[in-house]
Amino acid sequence: MTTNTYSLHHIHHDTTFGFNADDYSRFKFGDGAVSKDFGTALAEGFINDYLADNPISQQVVVISSPYSFIPTATFAMKDWFVYSLNHWLAGQGLPVVQETKVHRTITYKEDYGELNAEQRMNLIGNDQFHIDKDFLQGKTLIFLDDIRITGSHERMIMKMAKAYGLDNDIHMLYFAELINTDIHPNVENYLNYHQVKTIFDLEGIIKSSDFRINTRIVKYILNYSFDSFCVFIQNQSVQFTEQLYNMALGNGYHTIEAYEHNLNFIKKLLLLDNYKLIQYGN
Q1: Which residues contact 117 (CB under 8 A, 6 or more apart)?
Q2: Which residues contact 37 (CB under 8 A, 6 or more apart)?
Q3: 202: left (phi over 0), alpha (psi -120 to 50) or beta
Q4: All domains of the chain in start order, with CATH
Q5: What is the distance between the alpha carbons of residues 244 and 226, in angstroms, rounded to a whole number?
Q6: With a cut of 50, which residues of the chain have pLDDT below it?
Q7: What is the per-residue pLDDT for 232?
Q8: What pTM, to 2 d.p., does this model score?
Q9: 46-61 as b/e, with b when 16 or more CB fall inside 10 Å?
């Protein structure tokens, strides 16, 4: 087994990143148009900087960052990475990408981007990642994530690979990587919230044609102060509210006390909307 790490952008400064911080913030909250730009750029960078001189002859499997029910922001980026990589593979007469998923078992409400390296490892250290070992046999694996800050998630992936006895060649790919270790890991949250300062900054993202729901936006909305949350959610479409509620249940967020108040409000709002539909017949 060989392991290779590739990052498109290297972060050396805490205010200059090589990419637009507002774009990154929108991406983390579900802006599908930015996901397309990021995924395409990552694929093109990986092809030009690595694959052009080190072509992979084995079947390639692309794996997005681990999730339970609600995908992460990386999942939307992954789609466009795969599309672009497939164009190149097909042009080289190589097999196009296969995909699989890393399942995770634990969900938490803490904001990962605010934590230091030790806190991050303590938070996810008890999580368990699962993957279909038999499906991966004889294939080259590409694990995608949006950003590498302390390497905690990468260590969990490699822990999983060791536990499953994987002998595959593995590539760990990131849109960006924090290189300067003098910068506090909470620079990740500086990026995450660079444009999204309040719940009302989500309006344009959610109502765009390219919106892609993910864990961050669901947790952010459910954890928001109740009064502002109520104003916000009543201005959203029934379709979005239903999606938000269904995703929250799928990830088990109804079992997290901090989310209970906002989730119950959504439940009552959906029941009221259904009552109105029955009453007025439209």
Answers
A1: 150, 152, 185
A2: 23, 80
A3: alpha
A4: 3-196 (3.40.50)
A5: 16
A6: 275-282
A7: 98
A8: 0.91
A9: bbeeebeeeebeeebb
